[in-house]
């Protein structure tokens, strides 16, 4: 029987301490966040493509350039005309959005308080959530006439159901361990809701608020287009409609730019700030 060869043993000597590389863990190198700069670059690229297409079409009536639209936007701000239409739209939007949020939380409380309430809200949401808010405008005009009441009705509908569904899903997804931990600390009733349930469901609530805001803003602009064509009154939507009738296409694009800029401002200044000081700070969202 052939015995396998025996490998000779050897010992590696340790390196001296001075030769061992030492890394200072306290020094951290991090690159600055340049997300805002990248977004500005993307907007500049879009503006360049827009300007190139406008010059290629060479028809200001169909497609004004980015420079021409920017000049119309600046003139509207300088004269105060655009500010007036924007303020009217934001006032109506704030009232309708607030009423929708209050109604959504009342429906959410009903949905999470009992089984019958949950079945009722599920049925109502299945019926009315797929219904476009603008489809209710003829009925709103019949009930409330040409005025703010009709706008508030369609705005409340556009906010109510998305926020109710998101908030209800958030409350239902709260783990039982958190509920039991709250009971162990002696929490119950309103204190349980404020200190356990709402913080745990806050990501879903914020998501519902953003969806409801977007629906409300789009619905308001569309409804103001209809109001503008019937009564000559309205906000930013009426400004767009009136500019189209007068063949001021650059003002139409300026109004659309105002709609986009307001949406970006609300998203970054309101919702992202809320997320940063709450769910991101708590480690619930990246």
Describe the 3D structure.
This protein is mainly α. 72% of the residues lie in helices and 0% in strands. It has 10 helices and no strands. The chain has helices at residues 35-57, 66-79, 81-113, 115-128, 137-144, 148-172, 176-184, 190-231, 236-245, 249-277. The radius of gyration is 29 Å and the shape is flat. The model has no long low-confidence stretch (mean pLDDT 82).
SSE topology:
Elements: H1 35-57, H2 66-79, H3 81-113, H4 115-128, H5 137-144, H6 148-172, H7 176-184, H8 190-231, H9 236-245, H10 249-277
Concise synopsis of the structure shown:
By secondary structure, the protein is mainly α. It has helices at residues 35-57, 66-79, 81-113, 115-128, 137-144, 148-172, 176-184, 190-231, 236-245, 249-277.
State Rg. Answer: 29 Å
Regions with pLDDT < 50 over 5+ consecutive residues? none
Mean residue pLDDT? 82
Whole-Å distance between the termini?
65 Å
Q: Briefly note the structural class of the backbone.
A: mainly alpha
Number of strands: 0
Percent helix, as a range, is: over 70%
Q: Please state roughly what percent of the residues sit in beta strands, choosing from under 5%, 5-15%, 15-25%, 25-35%, 35-45% or over 45%.
A: under 5%
Shape: flat
Number of discrete helical segments:
10
Major beta-sheet overview: none
Order of helices and strands: HHHHHHHHHH
Task: Name some characteristics of this structure.
286 residues; mainly alpha; 72% helix; flat
């Amino acid at each position: 029987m052939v015995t396998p060869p025996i490998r000779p043993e050897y010992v590696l000597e340790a390196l001296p301490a001075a030769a061992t590389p030492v890394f200072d863990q306290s020094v951290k190198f991090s690159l600055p966040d340049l997300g805002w700069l990248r977004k500005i670059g993307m907007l500049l690229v879009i503006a360049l493509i827009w300007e190139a297409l406008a010059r290629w079409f060479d028809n200001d009536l169909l497609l004004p350039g980015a420079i021409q639209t920017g000049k119309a936007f600046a003139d509207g701000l300088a004269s105060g005309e655009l500010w007036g239409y924007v303020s009217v739209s934001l006032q109506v939007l704030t009232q309708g959005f607030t009423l929708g949020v209050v109604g959504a939380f009342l429906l959410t409380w009903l949905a999470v308080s009992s089984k019958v309430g949950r079945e009722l809200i599920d049925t109502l949401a299945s019926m009315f959530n797929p219904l476009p808010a603008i489809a209710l405008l003829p009925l709103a005009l019949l009930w409330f006439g040409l005025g703010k009441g009709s706008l508030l009705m369609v705005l409340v509908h556009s906010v109510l159901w998305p926020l109710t569904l998101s908030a209800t899903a958030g409350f239902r997804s709260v783990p039982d361990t958190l509920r039991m931990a709250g009971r162990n600390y002696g929490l119950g009733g309103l204190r349980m809701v404020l200190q356990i349930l709402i913080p745990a469901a806050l990501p879903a609530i914020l998501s519902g608020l953003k969806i409801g805001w977007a629906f409300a803003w789009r619905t308001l602009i569309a409804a103001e287009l209809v109001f503008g064509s019937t009564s000559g009154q309205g906000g930013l939507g009426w400004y767009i409609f009136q500019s189209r009738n007068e063949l001021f296409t650059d003002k139409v694009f300026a109004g659309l730019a105002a709609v986009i800029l307001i949406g970006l401002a609300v998203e970054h200044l309101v919702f992202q700030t809320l997320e940063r000081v709450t769910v991101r700070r708590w480690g619930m969202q990246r």
